[in-house]
## 1
Amino acid sequence: MSLTAQTNRAKPETISIDGLFYAYKGLEVFRDFSLHADSNTIVLRGPSGCGKTTLLKLLSGNLIPDKAKDMPSNINSCLVLQEDSLFPWLTGSENICVLTRLKSSQFTNHPMYKLIAPFVNRKACQMSYGQRRLVELFRAIIFRPLYLYLDEPFNFLDEKRIGLVLPFLQGEFIEGINLTMTNHHRDDLELIKSANVFHFDGEFPVSRLERLS
């Protein structure tokens, strides 16, 4: 999990990218790439290795574009990658407090907390992959960045837990947050009706994305 936060909040603008160029180890990934959304929730779909995660890293400031005319600010952004990022020797609660700088009393009343309450006081190394994923998602949501980037957020979650998490990725729970998520094989994220869904075709370099909704 990568966090870049500021105390002062501003209303997030919808994602707008123009003239993005980026190459990695000789592979031209993005060439004069543009994307314009009219929703504060975006779903990026496409096969593995098509550039989705790279785009999230560029948006969040974890990668630097070779060139870009227009990119959203990466200040006050949060990127949650597919890989587990919890400190294994800390409990779930400690992992939340360390990175968000919140006290446990500040988030135990959040409606999503009940999903992690049964195991949040275990050390991360004693949790299942699915349990750790829920802690990571909860931590990102209560951190409330202006720009939240989730890479395959439902990895390691079963159908029941996906259904329980989905409501917290829309509506009042992400009000004031610009949310962008990747998804390579599921239809779950399309249940978020307000989302703009863009599709990567898997061909490089990427200049444009097909908008599905």
## 2
Amino acid sequence: MSASEIIDQHYIGELYKDHHSWLLSWLRRKLDSPEFAADISHDVFVKLLTREENKQIHEPRAFLTTIARRSLANHWRHQQIEQAYLDALRAYPEPLHPSEEERAVIIETIVEINARLDGLPAIVKRAFLYSQLDGMRYQQIAEKLNISISTVKRYLTQAAAQCYFAINLQ
């Protein structure tokens, strides 16, 4: 372990010691579940530990609050995606339902795809999902979204590029 990593870990340890109880209290006021508040508060510090660079933070509480809000937003987005998937699954007969393990993998995959498509307009995402998940052809997507085939091609290229560059930046 390098000297800078030891310093970073010590700094985060100090942040934890000085601000964890405050962050936990803040989260408990925001959430119904004290257990979930504890999970999120620990996730915040784990994210700090796994960051590439931990520079001196001038406003630790504002910084920690920002990370906690992002973690909450990610959690709620994950829950929405999971609920939408489970709702869609109800349309199929029970023998066709995936196992719990397969379901977890599918949900995580959907969450990852959603994260990679983040920032694209909703219509671009829909075109991409119609193509990739529903197997729709350009003409079908164009009719469904009331756009031209050339626009469908442009949208699919845009979404594919977003996924490709998201993969290569990680």
## 3
Amino acid sequence: MARSLEFDRDVALGSAMHLFWRQGYVATSLNQLLAAMDISRSSLYATFGDKRRLFIEALDLFSLRNNAMVDQAFNDAQPLLAVRAFFVDSVQNSTPTRLARGCMMVNSILELADVDSDLSQHAAKRLGEVESRFQNCFELAQALGQLDKTYSPEYLAKMVMTLNQGLRVSSRKNVSVQELSNVVATTLGLLGIKV
């Protein structure tokens, strides 16, 4: 009979995610993970595998939470509200500490590009899921006549993802919330999305 876990797996994974998000994959040691997750080495290996597999799960958790910002705000009648909500939540409604961490997926792509291309590509794939959600919003907005068809939904999704990535890097440089908010308002304003 398998023994039951002596810790809350979701809480431990959340703690690992925050540590990886704050420090990055390479700089996070196994001992730091064990302390943050409040578990033993044997529990980590039995439950999550190794550090690499734990990182992938943590990245996936971050991605799910990121995607939820678009999904929860999605409205069939006003799909552009989901794009707006994503940026408002990401910048204006974020704590200074959270904002200063940037995006775990963007951070991972930059950190791991020359260190572990598979992990970097996994982060890029997860980031692509947000872009796909934006593209769906733009497709529906064009179909409803809420957005002109000068640019394809694919192009517009890539544009706002470039905005997102720039914001994440800028936030790591401690650019003020007001300045980031102004960039968001200006860029989304060009698409007719009021912030």
